Amino acid sequence: MASHFIKTEIEIDASAEQVWSVLSDFNSYSEWNPFIRSAIGQPIQGERLRITIQPGDAKPMRFSPKVLVSVPGRELRWLGRLVAPGVFDGEHCFIIEKLTDKKVRFEQSERFNGFLVGLLRATLERGTKRGFEEMNRALKARSESIAVGQHA
Which residues form a coiled coil (predicted)? Predict the structure, then answer.
């Protein structure tokens, strides 16, 4: 069974709480998120979400991951599957690491496992990684605009 790991990170000039409030507000994803176009559900451990991703110009993909970890201000992690376990599984992780009261490092990663991973490795490395980077930049912009608004 093949596996592949993608990791991206960005520094954001906002508090961990501000970044979490943007990341966990699924209802607003369509307004700002260029990668995860839609997220329905609650960021609560054990919950099943409905996610639509669209990296770049690719066709939208829908899946229903289960939230594995939800620690406000620190971590959100879910596991999504294509078809059945072992075909194409992705454990998606968002980590908010507090650097100061007004600065965090945001890390987005995913570990892919399954029989299809080898066939999709180039697409994952190209399109999916670019989608992570685009989302990171958009999360930074939205979180920082909230931070500025609260300090004005």
Answer: none
DSSP helix/strand/coil, 133: helix
79 residue type, one letter: L
Listed by start position, the domains of the chain span 2-151
Give the CA distances from residue 81 to residues 75, 96, 113, in Å, rounded to whole numbers and listed in that order.
20, 24, 10
Mean pLDDT to the nearest integer, 62-88: 93
| Selection from 148, 147, 132 nearest residue 20 by Cα | 147
Percent of the chain with pLDDT strictly greater than 90: 78
Tell me, what's the pLDDT at 151?
56
CB atoms within 10 A of CB 146: 16
| 17: its two tokens | 């709480």
Fill in the amino acid letter for 23: L
Q: What is the pTM of this model?
A: 0.93
Positive or negative: CA dihedral 117, 109, 127, 27: positive
Residue 1 has pLDDT above 80, yes or no: no
CATH architecture of residue range(s) 2-151: 2-Layer Sandwich (3.30)
Residue 114 zone, left/alpha/beta (φ > 0; ψ -120 to 50; rest):
left
> By the 8 A CB rule, do 135 and 108 touch?
yes
